[in-house]
Amino acid sequence: MSFHRRQFLVGGAVAAAALLGPRVAFAQTAAPSGPFKLDPLPYKNDALAPHIDAKTMEIHHDRHHQAYVNNLNAAVKDHSQVAQVPLKDILAKLGEMPEAIRTAVRNNGGGHANHTMFWQVMGPNGGTPSGALAEAIQRDLGGLDKLKSDFNGAGGRVFGSGWVFVTVTRDGKLALESKPNQDTPLMDGKMVLFGNDVWEHAYYLTYQNRRPDYLAAWWNVVNWGKVGERYAAATAGTLAI
């Protein structure tokens, strides 16, 4: 069997395992200890159903996000000066990171930051934007309906894997942008108000290749109260991730 054929078969098995969950078992290693931790979900795995199913939430949080945390801790374990820096600052100063770990920190630090934000901005019975947040959405993004349309369009145009975000400045101005892979606006020194994950593992069990359906359904689980809290923290300069 050729090397490339073996690569294809192994890659396919790993991808299948990620989607199928515990039906396919691989050897497990102890998670490296370190400064970065995976917080539990702030709701049950099935709380966002039917828009996001419980199995997707379990796999996405417990396996994908945990892997980013494990890999990030492994990357910084011999770099104590990096391990002591808040993740937001690490990502804003990637160019200053040791070259040997820069790619690992970019991919896994970005994945950890993006997912930490992602779990926070979702929840059941998310309500609607109100107060200063609603005013900013109207002023900067043309209102909620236009935001949804433009956001979904941007998410649909992401080639392969990535994210779509709404960023916020210290003076409260909102903007829309997308990023590939696990990149984040934090890497550009910006603040993230909220964002949606358009990697296939975020939606494939329910939506298969229908990313537009997932993007449309996702608005049903946006926790606008939490987004409003993040908006207030951003304008106060206290938003952590």
From TrEMBL:
<dbReference type="Pfam" id="PF00081">
    <property type="entry name" value="Sod_Fe_N"/>
</dbReference>
<feature type="binding site">
    <location>
        <position position="201"/>
    </location>
    <ligand>
        <name>Mn(2+)</name>
    </ligand>
</feature>
<dbReference type="InterPro" id="IPR036314">
    <property type="entry name" value="SOD_C_sf"/>
</dbReference>
<feature type="binding site">
    <location>
        <position position="197"/>
    </location>
    <ligand>
        <name>Mn(2+)</name>
    </ligand>
</feature>
<keyword id="KW-0479">Metal-binding</keyword>
<dbReference type="InterPro" id="IPR019832">
    <property type="entry name" value="Mn/Fe_SOD_C"/>
</dbReference>
<keyword id="KW-0732">Signal</keyword>
<feature type="binding site">
    <location>
        <position position="60"/>
    </location>
    <ligand>
        <name>Mn(2+)</name>
    </ligand>
</feature>
<dbReference type="InterPro" id="IPR019831">
    <property type="entry name" value="Mn/Fe_SOD_N"/>
</dbReference>
<feature type="binding site">
    <location>
        <position position="115"/>
    </location>
    <ligand>
        <name>Mn(2+)</name>
    </ligand>
</feature>
<dbReference type="InterPro" id="IPR036324">
    <property type="entry name" value="Mn/Fe_SOD_N_sf"/>
</dbReference>
<dbReference type="GO" id="GO:0046872">
    <property type="term" value="F:metal ion binding"/>
</dbReference>
<dbReference type="GO" id="GO:0005737">
    <property type="term" value="C:cytoplasm"/>
</dbReference>
<protein>
    <recommendedName>
        <fullName>Superoxide dismutase</fullName>
        <ecNumber>1.15.1.1</ecNumber>
    </recommendedName>
</protein>
<keyword id="KW-0560">Oxidoreductase</keyword>
<comment type="function">
    <text>Destroys radicals which are normally produced within the cells and which are toxic to biological systems.</text>
</comment>
<dbReference type="Pfam" id="PF02777">
    <property type="entry name" value="Sod_Fe_C"/>
</dbReference>
<dbReference type="InterPro" id="IPR006311">
    <property type="entry name" value="TAT_signal"/>
</dbReference>
<feature type="domain" description="Manganese/iron superoxide dismutase C-terminal">
    <location>
        <begin position="129"/>
        <end position="230"/>
    </location>
</feature>
<feature type="signal peptide">
    <location>
        <begin position="1"/>
        <end position="27"/>
    </location>
</feature>
<comment type="similarity">
    <text>Belongs to the iron/manganese superoxide dismutase family.</text>
</comment>
<dbReference type="GO" id="GO:0004784">
    <property type="term" value="F:superoxide dismutase activity"/>
</dbReference>
<dbReference type="InterPro" id="IPR001189">
    <property type="entry name" value="Mn/Fe_SOD"/>
</dbReference>
<feature type="domain" description="Manganese/iron superoxide dismutase N-terminal">
    <location>
        <begin position="36"/>
        <end position="122"/>
    </location>
</feature>
<dbReference type="InterPro" id="IPR019833">
    <property type="entry name" value="Mn/Fe_SOD_BS"/>
</dbReference>
